[in-house]
Amino acid sequence: MPNRARRRALTATGALLAAGLLVLPPAAAAAEYERVVNGDFASGEVNPWWNGAGTTGSVVGGEFCSKVTGGTVNGYDALAGQNGVAYEAGQSYTLKFDARAVTEQPISAVAGEAVDPYRQIARTEVVVTPEPQSFTYTFESTLDFPAAGNGQLAFWFGGQSFDNTICVDNVSLIGGVLPPPGLEPAAPVRVNQVGYLPDLPKQASVANESTTPLPWTLKNAAGAAVASGQSTPKGLDAGSGENVHLVDFSAYETVGTGYTLTVGGDTSHPFDISPDVLTDLRYDSLAFFYHQRSGTPIEAEYVGAEYARPAGHLNVAPNKGDNDVPCLAGIGCDYTLDVPGGWYDAGDHGKYVVNGGISAWQVLNEYERALRVGDATALGDGKLSIPESGNGVPDILDEARWEVEFLLKMQVPAGQPLAGMAHHKIHDAQWTGLPLLPHEDPQVRRLSAPSTAATLNLAAVAAQASRLWKDIDPAFSAQALAAAEKAYLAAEANPAKIADPNDGTGGGAYGDSTVTDEFYWAAAELFVTTGKSDYRADVTGSSLYKGASINTRGFDWGSTGALGDITLALVPTTLPAGDIAAIRQAITTTADGHLAQMATQGHPAPYRTQDGSYEWGSNGLVANNGVVLALAYDFTKQEKYREGAFGVMNYLLGRNPVNYSYVSGWGDQPVRNVHHRHWANQLDPTLPIAPPGALSGGPNSALQDPIAAGLLKGCPAQRCFIDHIEAYSVNEVTVNWNSALAWLANWTAEKSTVEPAASCSVAYTANGWNSGLSASVVLKNTSAAAWNGWTLKFAFGGEQKLQHGWSANWSQSGRDVTATNLPWNGTVAPGASVTVGFNASSPGPATTPSTFSVNGSTCK
């Protein structure tokens, strides 16, 4: 593989200008646009500066200091610099910097191109000494490099026989006439760039200073006007800081492609109107996880040659690998663990139990929800392009198992202190730069200390996995349940092992000081899987019981109580029906709050903080709040919630103030340059952009990286975003944001057609005794057509087992019960009824099943 650090440098000898000072008089007065980011290193961070071969750098005392290995021949054999620097041909630039060195030597400051053919614009040589000096030079650019393109500013330190340390500070490059990205407003007409469903609201947001309505025209792909009207002025929109108009073209329902919306003199990106616009997003969003697999090659057969790569972290040089991984020094463990596999968490090479936990749970819950209240056929075997496809197991479960098995490996083994607990994370001992493919990572790997939060994540997900694999792979189901119960006991014995918030070298800290929510979530999953009274008591005795965790902020890796409630609301148990109704009511009440808020916004998104700011990963929270809206529809069938969930997709796919689709590969202007070490085309053109289906983290008011801080200062909350690979606080990707997108994408694909009205009703009565019950079920045909055969389905709420039934063919799998007609009662006329019944053993309390369906239709 090429030396990627070297490929960044301006080293093509054929393009070198004459060595020595190149200082030109200014061609014109330069604008006051700063072209470098983090030039004063005041944050203590190096990013987005990098070090090439022969150097290692860090910020020391507010200076960027590079240790340089001697014995090189050329200046460019040891260098540091910054990419993505914008230059405009014919424009004047002024470079300023301070520099010093432990030992006096010449260095070069070079402006030019970061990739082959490495053309230079200007190069100046200076001599640096132990005494700090300030340097100022002005030059005119002969080349054009747009912002976030292949322009570069580099310092050459090589060509000396001796080792040295060279420090630079207060680096500034001012000039040009075009402002940096992020400072100008996006194109004003914002639509869902993928498309709209014919039967749902079709709305756009328009930034325009007019206070009176504006004319709008909807045009088809041929440019012909098909609808027109007047906008509705919304006024000043707090999220975008703009005066916003709303355009509603919902009345137009003709299916087609390539529509555009023109408002005044501005035109939107093209979009479709079709019931199929989101069908494939469910698969692209799930494909993300195969790309993130660790410990296995990503094969061209499944992702294409562009994205194929060797396996990472297999203890094959230069990897130190994920076998025999020792603990971080000082945490009190003297063993090693073999922890290959799992998903890389984000744009780095770390694997985190607390982030992997919610991600695996949400992928599994996507499937479990479809089994219980939706349609799981679209999530079956053969639906994803992964190696396990065709093995008879739903592909979504195969993908999730890759992560679940990794989580099990993170458990402290028997005989060790804290046995049964789970290590919080594994990642590199030091941060690595970009780009860096996993198999090229040379860093040693380290296990961080076990934590209560990680242990409860393991308990919850392993318990969930146990019930989903019970009939598919009983041995794996039993293994998962044993690990879950061991983890829960270990967490109870160590309830305050909090992850070190300062353990953030080489990987994110993922600190979480409150674990009440994780205890509730884990107890809920274990109770649903086992029905045991101890877990039931922990659920009902929790302060979070009956939906207390479900709120308008939403859930994420650090706030997981709602996950337990979602499971309890979906999977039948012996809990009182009124308590389950209370959980569902908390979901619908929160969904109502989201809808009320969205109605006030110029660019509707179900997201809020107390001060109106947006936080790191806001798009993940937006998607998870979309999940709440979707569940509210599942439980009530009220159309307003369906509209709200699709409204979330509108925001993520382009109806937002930056006019980006936040999902790579989807829409006319999707994110391309997400923060990722091997989807790094912006830094290395031989590497790919993000594959379709990756969700960017999105707006973040805190601007916690130098690129965002330099380009977006003072941004309104929903506009604190830039599509730049180094802008990690706004443009990173993670498994837990994509799991939220995948859940919502599957739901919207499933609900892209209007559900038929219920065609049946069920009356259920049961008489119980200490160890059993006898039930009568009356099925009524409420449709306009006769049933020519029927199938009844429901699920027991506990460990009931069918003994015998009458007037139907009865069967049971797990808690799921199926009854089909006999020859003499299969025809049921409209308005007519048929009565069936059964006896069952009941070792514990029995509750009325929450949902009945006949012939696939949910009954009233």
Overview of the structural elements:
This protein is an alpha+beta fold. Among the domains are: 4-175, Jelly Rolls (Sandwich); 760-858, Immunoglobulin-like (Sandwich), CATH 2.60.40.290.
Which properties best describe this structure?
alpha+beta, Jelly Rolls, Immunoglobulin-like, five-stranded antiparallel β-sheet, 16 helices, 38 strands, globular
Q: What's this entry about, in short?
A:
The chain is α+β, with helices and mostly antiparallel strands.
Q: Could you report the average pLDDT, rounded to the nearest whole number? A: 92
Provide a count of the helices.
Answer: 16
Detail the poorly predicted runs.
1-30
Largest sheet: 6 strands, mixed
| Termini gap | 62 Å
**Overall geometric form:** globular
CATH topology of the domain at 4-175: Jelly Rolls
- CA radius of gyration is 30 Å
Could you state the CATH homologous superfamily of the domain at 4-175? Galactose-binding domain-like
| Second-tier CATH architecture of the domain at 4-175 | Sandwich
| Number of separate strands | 38
Structural class, judged by helices and strands? alpha+beta
CATH class of the domain at 4-175: Mainly Beta
Give the DSSP E fraction (strand runs of 2 or more residues). Answer: 15-25%
